[in-house]
Amino acid sequence: MRTTLVWIGLLLVTVAVQAVLLPFIFTPGTKPDILLIIVVACGLLAGKERAIGIGFFAGLLQDFASGNVFGLNTLSKMATGYTAGLFERKVFKESILLPVLAIVLAALFNNVLMQALLFILGYKVAMISTFSYQVLLSLGYNILFCIPVHRLVYRITFGNNSQF
Q1: What percent of the chain is helix, strand and coil (3-state, nearest 5)?
Q2: Does residue 130 register a pLDDT over 60?
Q3: Is residue 163 a part of any domain in this protein?
Q4: 10-54 pLDDT, tens per residue?
């Protein structure tokens, strides 16, 4: 029960920071997606079942806060969390390189998936925008945030007695 409250608190604080504070710090379209980093770290550290749940609530909160097509972030975060969770038993969880490589792949996967969902829903989408300057700059910001967020998720998942 305590862990569930910690996850809920983390997601609520993160969506508030991401929706309110980060647009003032970063230029439009180039802010980091900290919720995505949390979902990917959760998948790698806690498995696909937990990552799907965290991805659902993180995406739902982001959908409420963003004003985009409702459900787009929810579906993409759930799919990204599930995909990251598939590798939970195959990775060395204490590796510093793991969150960096994982967030690069997950951010690209998430972006392509969101573009594909928009296309399926009938929106005009330029797939070349998947690798635009803004997306690559956001990816760089995600890399900067991924190690501290990964460590935080590690502590939530495995307790405060961890040495990581």
Answers
A1: 80, 0, 20
A2: no
A3: no
A4: 999 999 999 999 989 988 778 999 999 999 999 999 999 999 999
Could you give the 3-state DSSP secondary structure of residue 148?
Answer: helix
Q: What is the DSSP string of 61-123?
A: HHHHHH-SSTTHHHHHHHHHHHHHHTTGGGS-TT-SHHHHHHHHHHHHHHHHHHHHHHHHTT-
- Give the domain extent around 68: 2-158
d(CA 9, CA 29): 26
Per the confidence metrics, is the pTM higher than 0.90?
yes
Structural domain total, the chain: 1
Would you say residue 164 lies in a domain?
no
Tokens of 143: 């890399």
CATH number where 70 lies? 1.10.1760
